[in-house]
Amino acid sequence: MSSYRSAGLAALVTAACTPSIEPAWLVSKPRELALEVEVIAQGPYGERIVPGPRTPRDALPLDVVSMRPVVVDPDGRIEPDELEGIWLLCEGVGNCLVREPVAGRPECTGGELQPTEPCRIGGGGSAVWTMGDLPSELPDELPTVFDLISGPTVAFVGSAPDGPGLERCVSRLDARERLEGCLLMERVVGLGPLGELVERLAAAGIDPGIPEGAETLLARGRNHNPAVTEIRVSLAGESMQVAVGSTVRVPRDAAIVLTLEPAEEDLDRFEILLNDEPVELTDDLFGQWWFDREIDYEEAAVGGLWVRWRAGPVTGTVRAYVVLRDNRNGEGWGWLDLEIEG
Amino acid sequence: MQRLASVVALLSVIAWLGLVMSREARAAAPEGEAPCPALRCGRLIGDVRVAGQRTPLPDAVVLVMAAPADASEGRYSPPFAEPEPAWARSQRSDAAGAFTFEGLPVGLVRVAVLGAGFERRDEIVRIPAEATGQLRIFVTPLDASPFRTVVTAPPVPRSQVTEHVLTKEEIATVPGSQGDPLRALQNLPGMMRPPGGLGLLVIRGSPPSQSQVFMGGHAMPRAFHILSLASVFPADVLDELRYIPGNFDAAYGNATGGIVVVEPRRGRRDGVHGFGELDLAAASAMVEGPLGRGSFIVAAQRGYVDAVLATAAAVTERVTEEPSSVLLPRYYDYQTIYDRPLRGGGWLSARAFGSGDVLRARTPPEAAAVSAFELRTDFHRADLLYRKQRLGWTTRLTPSFRYEVNRLVAASNAFRRRRRDYVGSARAELSRAVGPRVLLTLGTDSQIDAYEALDEQTDLSRPGSLTQDRQQGVQTSLGVYVSSELRLGRLTLRPGARVSGFSVGDRLAFAVDPRGMGDLELGERWQLSAGLGRYSQVRNISDRNEVDLVDQGTGIQGASVFLPSAFGSLDPAVEFAPQDTQLTVREALHASAAVRYRFGEGGSAELTGFLNNQQNNVPPVMNGSNNPFDSISRAAGLEVLVRRRISRKLYGWIAYTLTFTELILLQAPPGFPYARRPSDYDQRHNLVALLSYALPRHWRIGGRFRVVSGLPYTPVVGSVALPGGYQPIFGPRNAARLPASHQLDLRIDKQWVRDRASVTAYVDVQNVYNRVNPELVLYAGDFRSEAGYVGLPIFPSLGVRVDW
User: Fold this and answer.
1) pTM of the model
2) Looking at the predicted complex, does its ipTM rise above 0.95?
3) Which residue of B has its CA nearest to A286?
4) Is there a contact between B785 and A22 if contact means CB atoms under 8 Å apart?
């Protein structure tokens, strides 16, 4: 029914005098854009990881994973070392920070692939964690391997450099008080590849619970984080690929289109047999854009790999941030400075 | 300029009254003085009627005089300072408004009618030779009101500490209420200003479902149409509304909040009358008149908000070229009433009324399979009322039958639910004075509800598959009550008690509710009243389907909208088969005390303090266990009402309510942050000042100013950043409060009185100075900051009504 609710409320909001609302894409204060999660050391399971242009995202039991939040403010990225924070491991997005109090959480023992209660895996602006080993059986609440791979989740609670401090952020979160200046994010770690997990579970005598028709997904390889290395800038019929971190001069009144053109490595292609015919599948990719100045959005498709905007009255330089995600928890990010002419 | 015109008109009337008196004196002269030559005489018979109402006007002065030389037949407007007519005769209309003049000269004569409180009316008529001229002449009341009071049976005496009554005129003219009877009640103390200013009865902080509206002695299944757009009965079928915010009589049960008592009126017997009304949201009509020895009323109302919204959505689609989803509410209601006296002093009333609502989703075709739905709810009820007073006994019997059906169809007919109820109910009551000091009332009310519920579901992935779940059963309630009145000089005590039993299938629940009230007269003007009693209501255990229109956290235009929980009461919902395994009863203790001062010229000022302490008795999830959400609801406060009818043309009141309501969880562990919180309806202050004045020339103007505290809401304190979005983090429930709001509503009515009908047009403007009164909270799309509030803008409502 939500579409009607939206329609009714939209009518009310439209009819009434509504206050100006700060858009969620505006980097006017510290914002959590992404979480860099990568396997930095491989455990005993799975094929050996071949170094490549993209960092491996899928982790198998006993792999070592590094986690670094991408937090930006109007001055640019806040390096993880500047952040105060604690890291939790828990089960399922949405269950880490809002269900249970964060203060007093026990340290994770290291044996749990995903704990039934949130536990701490570290402190500071970044974390390194060794994934737990395979469970001896699938718990009742995670009856299939699909539940297992979507489960392990990391959460970060921190304070921005100018924020109230970690201790206050935690106490405010637990007391459900205003969380101004606090940073909170959750990400599914991403277990995989699926076929490897299923094989290991089966070898341990555990039914992985693969439903009929889902076997095709077993051929999927280890997922890698997509990367943002270049952004296409188009204006007035002209277009150019620009390396992230560059500065581009753009005219004030032009409609500027920024587009991500994913590389082959971002797609993690694999082939399956469907009705005995080979079919090639790839990851689905989504983009999300932020700007550090209040520019005029002309159009921005949700999840679209492009955005069209206009500088409007803004002068100086506008920094555009973009995060590229795949549908298997992989994330990459980049930025571009756009200097407004005139 | 207007004042000058009024003065001139007044002087003119005074002059004419002087002339009338002199003509009356002359009319007493012998008939032979009439200027009528032999064989050239005629006769005039006629009657005087009230314009717009067509009712006879007795005791009006009717003058017949020589017509001016240049006059022609028809209506005549006399000039100022006209010469005295050559002759004149007069008489007064009789009880039927009739008059007869014999021996008038043939040809044109002038007839003038004057009545106290009416505009003068002059007509030129032709008197035929040796024949009878006939004339029906209409006179217009100076302050005509279409709100005519029909004398009905005296209300049943009931005990209460505080009772507020609204007349039909007040209901129709209170600004900001659009003539709706139950919304007019929202201006009285103890009534919360509901979210959105819509129609909900939140009495002394109790949720709407815990209060009851009784019509003809039986509880209404619903008081408002869907989305609380309008009451399910119009003001025109009743003479007044009685509203008792707490400590009500033992005759009323199954409510722990307050009650509203509606008694339909009898139809008029002075001719066939009626009205038709049209406004932006609905059309309604009514006909009433004599029927045999009795009278009848037939009325109906149809809301067409759906048509307005559908048109708006179609226009929006054309402009934006994007599909538009919108909810379309539609409703109707009807009332038929027949009353007749019986031999031996009894009265019989037969009433049939009903109401129907449809809430339908207008969806783009591509979304219909998922999101299309239609919710229908209808009831039809037939009541008989037999009432008789004889040998000191008053007997009242009201059997009633109701048919009710709820239907929900969703997802392209794949999901269907239906519930039908066949409800028989009855109330029987005997009252008698036992000696000079004691009045005793004994009564019983009962209800048997045979229901059948059907759930059907089709698996969309397996065409042709259908699963059905059919349930049927019986729900009953039985109440036996006694109430009494003991007059002990200045002290009147009203003890009473009610025993109630409820059943759903084999589940049973009982309640014993002793109640007592008392009044102490302190001189002619002061009165103290107090009451203490227990009130019970069976908890509804039926499965509900809610449209979920007002769930929290809807993203709109880059922001997230959050609504106070009180909006949930506006959510359209229908009930189906009982689900819970246990039947329990809410138990409330009502205590209140009032001090009242009666003004000499009518009206009163009163101050009431109240407490409603309610054990909610939430049934355990499993037999034998405690429910961690069992709770107590507590409301306490003060009410002030100063109400005066300053003159026949001016009425108004000031109502103020101070309320503290909270919910206390009984099983919460120590330190649990939600163990005690403001209830969803904790509106701390509510002040209403209201005035309505009947101006000359059939204008009426009224204003209502209201200041209320904001409703509590559950704040969003921050959010967790997730891939592609944010998850809001809610603060403790109802920990924040919307800012106070205030608004002025104005209503202007203009009536045009014609001979056989009157036309009234009104404009009712809400929020005249367009203040943003917070109704909901806007957060930035990331929930990290509160962006502000949204309120309803200025809103004019227009309507026109024809009475005949």
Assistant:
1) 0.84
2) no
3) B724
4) yes
